[in-house]
Amino acid sequence: MNETRTATSVPQTAFAPQTAFAPQTARNGGYAIEAKDLSVSYDDFLALKGVDLKIERHKVTAIIGPSGCGKSTMLRAFNRMNELFRAARTQGEVLFNGVNIYRDEVDPVEVRRRIGMVFQKPNPFPKSIYENVAWGARINGYKGDMDDLVYQSLTQAALWGEVKDKLGQSGLSLSGGQQQRLCIARTIATRPDIILMDEPASALDPIATLRIEELMRQLSQHYTIIVVTHNMQQAGRVSDYTAFLSLDGTDDTRSHAPGVLVEYGPTARIFSNPANQMTEDYITGRFG
Amino acid sequence: MSKGRERRAVRSDPWQVGGGSGIEGDGFAPRLNRRHRMANVWRTVFRLSTVVGILALGLLLVNIINDAFGYVAIVNTVDPLELGEGRPLEELPKETLVQILEANVSAGLFRRFAHDEPFEERASGDVINLIYENVVKPRVVNQWTLLESLTQRRTILTQGPVDYPGASERSVRVRFESWVDVAFITSPQSADATRAGIRTAILGSLWTIAIAILFAFPIGVGAAIYLEEYAEETQLNKLIQTNINNLAGVPSIIYGILGLAIFVRALQPLTSGALFGMTDPTTANGRTIISAGLTLGLLILPLIIINAQEAIKAVPNSLREAALALGATRWQTVWSHVLPNAMSGILTGAILSVSRAIGETAPLVVVGASTYITSDPNGPFAKFTTLPIQIFQWTTRPQSVFRNIAAAAIVVLLVLLLSMNGAAILLRNRFSKRL
Q1: Rounded to an integer, what distance in angstroms lies between the CA atom of residue B435 and that of residue B420?
Q2: Segment A117-128, tens digit of pLDDT
């Protein structure tokens, strides 16, 4: 996997020694991350039920589905963000490089560096552009040339040309689309294997959205990208694989039906020839 | 500011719906005129409340200023110019002053002064003080407020110097006295109102506030960080939170009793300084600056915690998520992002707390502030008095002249308060401007 990252001359060893996932061999048959019977609940509320999903390496995988079906919950289950702010209980396994990230001995802090995240609303730190990119790498013990890392990360995020003369300015001084690319650059700077994106373009105008989509395509050469989106066209444009989540209509034992994975496959097939009637209804705009 | 315009616009309403006559055809009775009338009534009520508040504040200030400046009639038992043979005492060398003192007080009294502190070691200002206290003995026989001084200046200047029993005409002086002046701020306490100052009290206030803030700020901010960033929402933590909120409203005298029990009594070896080799018998009872400072610290601790919690809550969660998603630990997130963004709010809370602490009187009375000390506090284990205590003491004296110096001390307290707040606000603005 390292050899595919030739565009980034920064070797993994520039970071302080890491634990569970350090040898990046394709131990689980080439999948970047794999959910096995994954269920997430908040207190009494079951948000996601029994999801099995194998995410391909260096591809863009889109997660689509109607509101409240657990798309974001699933995304956040992939880097243990769920447990941060609400009393979330996760059952099942999420295998990352063959290791279940929910095992007791796995440190979520380490998981989150290897599986980065870009949020719906651009949230750069109220610090300089340079510091926005450098901070994550620094706190993770990056020992290489920081200027070089900032340059590489901003270049990969297609932002270098626009900000190279004002690296000292506040990240908040940028436009919304630039801020979101800065957030992507910030995530890249910690050299993750996977980048999770939670509706990264929903707060942006169409042109900025297009740039983010182009960026996702480029980044997929080096990173595995999982993107939650409401926008069907966007899923069709950027993703190689699509997972369709919906509410479980068969489960009427609860006040709120849990989200389940309805269909998963190559985007071209899902959009042209969905196997499931619900998928077809959703994609053709009949509900959701 | 379109509040006034809104009403006029409605009056020229072309559809005539504002008549207020009754229900229109569509089931609405807009009665716009009546609603606007009610709105105006309420606006007047709110404006009146503001005016009352401002008036009260203005009256307070006028009242204080009125007492702090004005004409006084002073009777000197002996004219100081006479003592110095035409020259003011301040211009004379120390040796001459000592001679004057020796010539005008009894031999026994002079020996006692020399015994208290040899004249060779006394400063000449000190000797002048002794001359004033024992020879000149100025008495304020009448004083006028600032308003009287301004409006009846001529009457005061002509009528003032006469008719004081036991005063020869030469020894009565009427002069404009600014009770707040440099000498007032830099002089120690004195039994003579015209020579009394508040240096001891100011230093006492600064010492206690410094100790209070050094004690309460780190603990308060630490507790706020724990409660906001680390604590789970358990029943115990909810109970703790409720308690902290209630503690902020506990009457301050109760903190005084707490401070008396803990710092003065239980921790006496510590607060009297005995553990650190302090052997001064007057502070061996633990009624020291550090006891007072810690008591005030306890008093402002809940305020600091609550304000810091609010400031930390105001930091958007998206920043925490962003940091944590990069593989930061909780502490790295708090240190690099939460605290810098909350700092201006935390400092504001600290400012408010200091403002409260600097004016507190009751708990310090309980903890055991000294009513009359002339020596500056020389450390945390010294006896103390503070500005509000001093003001309180002076207002309880029967002689009306102490009212003037109490007013002067209030002016100083207010200025001290405002300048501390100002400095803290500047500091806060610098924090919030920093990237």
Answers
A1: 25
A2: 999 999 999 999
| Stretch B24-45: mean pLDDT | 87
Give me the sign of the Cα torsion angle B231, B233, B236, B238. Answer: positive
- Scanning A174-203 for CB atoms below 8 A from B yields 183, 186-187, 190
**A113 and B CB contact within 8 Å:** yes
Tell me which amino acid residue A221 is: Q
Between the two ends of chain A, the Cα-to-Cα distance in Å is 38
Helices (H), A97-229: 108-114, 129-139, 146-156, 160-163, 176-188, 206-219
CATH number of the domain within which A252 lies = 3.40.50.300
Judged by DSSP in three states, B417 sits in helix
CATH superfamily of domain region B199-433 = MetI-like (1.10.3720.10)
The pLDDT of residue A185 is above 70: yes
Question: Dihedrals φ, ψ of A66, to 5°?
Answer: -70, 170
Whether A168 maps to a domain, the answer reads no
Lowest mean pLDDT among A275-279, B150-154, B237-241, B295-299: B150-154
Structure tokens belonging to residue A268 = 């071209």
Strand order in the sheet with B139-143: B139-143, B69-75, B172-178
Q: How far apart are CA A45 and CA B114, in angstroms?
A: 87
**Domain locations in chain B?**
1-16+28-43, 67-178, 199-433
Q: How far apart are CA B208 and CA B423, in angstroms?
A: 18
Q: Quick one: tokens of B284?
A: 């061996």
Yes or no: say if B263 and B290 are a contact pair by the CB < 8 Å rule.
yes
Please report which residue ranges of B105-247 form alpha helices under DSSP H: 107-116, 124-131, 146-151, 153-159, 182-186, 199-225, 235-247
Contact B321 A170 (CB under 8 A): no
Query: Which burial class, exposed, middle or buried, applies to B164 when counting CB atoms under 10 A from its CB (0-12, 13-18, 19+)?
Result: middle
B130 falls in which pLDDT band (50, 70, 90)?
A: confident
Pairing status of strand A115-118 against strand A60-64: unpaired
Phi-psi region of B341 (alpha: psi -120 to 50; beta: other; left: phi over 0): alpha
Tally the domains of chain A.
1
Element (H or E) spanning B178, and its range?
Answer: strand B172-178
Q: Evaluate whether residue A159 is within a structural domain.
A: no
The verdict on residue A273 lying in a domain is yes
Distance (Å) from the alpha carbon of B178 to chain A's nearest alpha carbon: 51
Closest Cα in chain B to A131: B435
User: Given this model, what pLDDT does residue B244 score?
Assistant: 92
Which pLDDT score, from 0 to 100, does residue B160 have? 66
Nearest to B318 among A113, A123, A128 (CB): A123
Query: A280 versus B42: which is more confidently predicted?
Result: B42
Domain range for A227: 29-122+189-283
> From CA B83, how far away is CA A62, in angstroms rounded?
101
Asked if residue A136 belongs to a domain, the reply is no
* pLDDT above 70: residue B170: no
Position with higher pLDDT, B321 vs B157:
B321
| Chain B residues close to A75, C-beta within 8 Å | none
> In angstroms, rounded to a whole number, what is the distance separating the alpha carbons of residues B347 and B334?
16
Confidence tier at B1 by pLDDT (50, 70, 90): very low
In single-letter form, the type of residue at position B253 comes to: I
Please give the Cα distance from A257 to A242 (Å, whole number). 22
Count of residues making up chain A = 288
What does the mean pLDDT of chain A come to?
85
Q: Is the pLDDT of residue A270 over 50?
A: yes
Amino acid at the residue B119: F
CB pairs under 8 A between A and B: 69
Question: What's the pLDDT score for residue B274?
Answer: 76
Closest CA to A121 of A204, A39, A59: A204
Predicted-complex ipTM score:
0.87
